[in-house]
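Much of our argument rests on the idea that a fold can be written as discrete symbols. In the encoding step, the backbone of a single protein was reduced to a row of integers, each denoting a local shape. This step matters because it turns folding into a mapping between discrete strings. For completeness, the protein is quoted in full, as a sequence line and a line of structure tokens:
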Amino acid sequence: MLRGVDGYRRGALRFDVRDSGPVDGAPVVVLLHGFPQDASAYDAVAPLLTRAGVRVLVPNQRGYSPGARPRGRRAYALPELVADVVALLDAAGVERAHVVGHDWGGGVAWALATHRPHRTASLTALGTPHPGAVRAGLLHGQARRSSYMAWFQVPRLPERALLAQDSRALRRALTGADLEAPLADRYVERMLVPGALTAALAWYRALPLSRGAAGWVRVPTTYVSADRDPFFAPASVAATARFVDAPLTRVALDADHWLPEHRPADVADAVLGRVHA
């Protein structure tokens, strides 16, 4: 059973994970980060949850854990990312967890709730619309907001561009999206490790292999949207409700993209609302 800052294995891959809070009989929350974050994105959220009597598991996901960086985009398709979360639950001795996902972690959470509902006590999506809603919004502003993903499909060139001149381009992209410089520097430093940025971009490059990975969601769901998020069109946000056939709570915040870092109290409140529902 995991305790503290530890890790777990899935086959030959080893994942880093932070495990905090009570164990016996406590509800369990899994917090999934996005690009180019890591488990530290939830540093201000996790203590709020543990103080409420919740056990919190926060993994560095595939490509972000140094011991879990397989080569090739196929290894980063959504079914693999979902299986990583299931392996975490198995390693921690947890049958069902309340799953929270931000950015790409939200995509994993939607897919987990679709295909592993018996392991998902509830879903809280932070910012990220349902993937089907993103597709529905493509003709209504989402295509422009997602255009960078097409560039990420090009082999090697994005890595060279983002890490050129001591990674100034990547840092500018993050601070330009309202992430403060100290946090941007922390995430950029991790991407400077050889192979780390390529592994993180492999999530995007695996998108053509992940079509249909998220379908109808039939677990209790909370969707926290950010009105000033530059990456998700209002049409995609609005369409998300069409893909949830279960109790759905919508929380709209006047906030930017970085909900775990900038709005930890609101995130914790949304999660606890599901835990105690």
